[in-house]
Predict the 3D structure of the following.
Amino acid sequence: MFILFGFRTSDQRLGVRTMLCDVCGNTAAQGLVKRTTKFTLFFIPLFPVKRPTYFRECTHCGAGRQVDERYVLS
Ligand SMILES: [Zn+2]
């Protein structure tokens, strides 16, 4: 018998803000994404293995930047 385990990373879209993009310089919708990595046992995600990271994605140019957790709460 063997135990099948691994990790799964999933993204969750939290919301959208219209802001100035640092990369392309256009004012466009910026999607806020929460990325979580969980430990899986037999392909069932059980618990997170590290703190979630947050990303801001520009809908105009597609560039993504990691943002601080305080940015999400403000
Ligand atoms: Zn952009």
